[in-house]
Amino acid sequence: MMLEYFVDLLKISLPVLYLFTLFLYGLAFFLDEQFGIRNRTKFLVATLIVQVVYLFSRTLLTGHPPVTSVFEIMSIISLTIGGAYLFIELRTQVKDTGLFILSLAFLFDVVSAAFIKDDVHLNPVLKSSVLGIHVASAMLGYSALAISAVYGGLYLMMYHEIRSSRFGIVYRKLPNLQTLEKLSYASIILGFVFLTIAILIGYVWLPKTIDDFSYSDPKLIITDIVWVIYFSALLSRKAMRWTGRTVVIVSMVGFVLTIASMVIVNVFLHSFHNFQ
Amino acid sequence: MLKLTAVSINHRTANVEAREKIYYSSEEIREISDKIKAVARESLLVSTCNRTELYLMPSAAPETHNSLYQLIREGKNFHGGELQVDFETFEGFDAVRHLFSVATGSDSLMLGDIQILGQVKESYNTGVELGMVGTVLHHACQVALKVGKRAKTETRISEGAVSVSYAAVELAEKIFGNLRGKTAMLIGAGETAELAAKDLKPKEITRLFVANRTLERARNLVEQLGIGEAIPLDALSQKLPQVDIVISSVGGSNYILTRDIVAAAMKGRETRPLLIIDIGVPRNVDPGVKKVASVFLNDIDSLNMIVQKNLDMRRSEIPAVRRIVDEELNGFIKWYNSLEVGPTIKMLRDKIEKIRIDEIKRNKNRMNGTDTEIVEEITRSIVNKILHEPLTNLKNVEDGTSLVDRVKLMKSLFGLSEESGGKKDEQD
User: Taking CA atoms, which of A47, B150, B176, B388 is between 20 and 30 Å from B213?
Assistant: First the structure.
């Protein structure tokens, strides 16, 4: 009972923490407020720690990892986006893009907190330890692709700010085009690597575990198509020496296609890849 | 009160010609230092191309502002003549506040100038080396350097380009990030091109083409810069595919770079961006060039807009800088006042101890050896206990009364005089 209250408390606290973290990143971005500048990263770390504790406690409470529903997975995506952003921020010291990337993490967390259910029937497949690696890789992969798309969007904002000679807050606060392109590209690479790991584990593990496994399952086909799109884009970049705007547009188109196809598969088509 | 006087000849009081004539190099500060030291217990001479300031704590009778101003002028053998020169003065803690403001760049001609902090540090080092700086100015300079650093890191007073040529470099950095390894082309070899090249050079660009109608003039600029290759104006379309940044500032009514020339150059560059900055009036570059993919075309109005926005931003930071100056000045005032406390405590302790010892000596014959020891112990303990509270409260200024007032009251109540304890050198 105590654990249930604790999990509920964390579930409600997380969107508030994310919102406050976003508020600090916003204070620093728009107003250069010292309070925001000094505390934004600290609050992000605290929020992520609370989220890890929340997911761990939830696993203890329900007896299964939080991957049984779209809304549980959304909380993991939120965590991986936040974690991946923190890693990038610490590596590059580029902090003024946090407001945009963490908005995505906040969005996933809010939807997750609003609709997540506690009494989910547990599919026996979910007891497998390989599942954790498969899901974690897939989530990290999609999160990195989402981050890449956000950096791509920021690149285009900056690109148009300079082309149109506006020189407003976007020009002053965002990193240079070269850096945004590098961040977007590095995120694609990371996303692609994790997605590849998830697909490989899936292909090895799923046929042994699931009775009605089929290679023609729509979710598998869509995931393969997404993988092929990114693979072709990465090859083309190398072969055709794509740089700048072309790279980020490919990243954004890739991500939009990924989201669109996932929505179509989950909403309109039947898949064995559903464990609820 | 702190007996510190500052006399400042700066951009508000003198024109550039006068400021140049009154500028002191380190060597010249060395030459005049003996004359300054003759009238000062402590002093500091800060001299840059935009200001010459003398901070001085007089050794005896206070110097008049005019005599200090004359001292600065005489050191440079400067008599003014037709030049309009005036000076500003600051007294006591206002002089310290002024030094702090100078270190932040908020008092500079170019608002937020970051070089001034280094110049204050250099002046301080020279002052230390020449034995001009004492306890008070040493601490004032240390705090001034801290204030300058805080203003730079905690506010935006020094952010953004505030000259057209540097705005061009900043724009290039916003596109390419690091400019190391990039190739630039100057079209025109006039003053604007020269300024832009001087700002680009420290960014370690690998190659620089200088294209000009008169090749000789382009060669002269290349020679002067120590980097680059002079090319005739009609060769620029051949070199353009290799270039990342073009800065054009040549005269003439026809476009030097047309859309066709730029589009042709971009064909060999895949999607690698090209920045063209047109600072020529009338414009040198066809505005249609903006429509070519991966080309960024900006003109003099764009650069002026960047400069204006940055200046507005720096101005908006002045209140934040003043808050830092006030905070650190309060700390400095507390530190200065605390210099009074130590000697006063010592004077009081010495006086009470003397009374105690005298009384024991006077009554020694009335006690045997053991009694004397006991009385020694008891009286020492009584003295310590009596003194503990007033001495603790003397340092505690949280109730609003000033430390200076407390020290004065303590001296007056106990009749403490200069002779009875170690008085600090800087005492008024």
Answer: B176
